[in-house]
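Checklist before submission:
- one chain only
- standard amino acids only
- sequence pasted in full

Submission:
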Amino acid sequence: MVDSNDLVIPVYLNQRIVFDLVAVLEGGIASVTQVSERQSQATGESKQIGASFGVSNALSSLLKIDLTGKRDRESSNESSTTRTEDRIHTPVSLFIALRAILREKRYLKEIEANTEITPGDLVEFSTVLKRNPLIETLDSFVEMIDMFQVFADKPQKGKGKQISEMQQMKKQMASLLSSLRSGDTMDLTTPPLPSCHRAVISIETQNLNDPSMSDLVDGTFRVVGKVTRSIGESEGAISLNRKSALNRLPSSALDQLKKAFQAPELADMSFPDLEWEIRGPAIQMLPIAIFA
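Returned file contents:
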């Protein structure tokens, strides 16, 4: 039985994982479910009535649902109508079915206070999502420089060197952004969950509803996925720059980068907090779905 909690709107859905898990749990997937219904009724006149709903043939074929009906009516005779429907799951309805199976079998762990999380756990939780804070900060810096160039007055004497230095820094930041965004994956982060863990969620951009992620960040969503790494409070950190050359730099060099954003000339600019790692307690996970 479907309830209101199953009426979800996904902003991220990995259909391949959904299909694979349902196939594993159910021993394969029946592509079509056939439903037959037989009705008998007595009628009082002889006439054939046909009805067709205003749905295009293409849509009717796609949905595999019979939307036409006919009935025969003959005086004092009993007539029968047999209807056959072919029903096919959409990716979202199949995900809801998968979620129900996982809950029924108690394979899906709801993250609450004091929940122990280990690699391999299938988990679900509600949280606010943020883009990778390192990318967010560098993006903001590049945009700020562009706006400065647009709205700045004509260059004054002595300011040419400052503008040149900002341009050079912009090129460096753009290069770092390019390396961080390489590949088809991107990190999202969360504030502490009820279990006190922060989460690093590695999404595949091809499975996003909106590639710009305008409908994904800064909102509260439910996340279902599998934990790939879990670290305690004093067990290290999850790097947010795993794909870039920054990951090979010593911590002292990264501290210098952080100090650059705290320079007096940038004091009036509101940058997000610069983070290149999420310290424990934290989890890293592969999401199956993110939905509202």
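Reviewer check: Residues 160-180 form the longest helix (21 residues).
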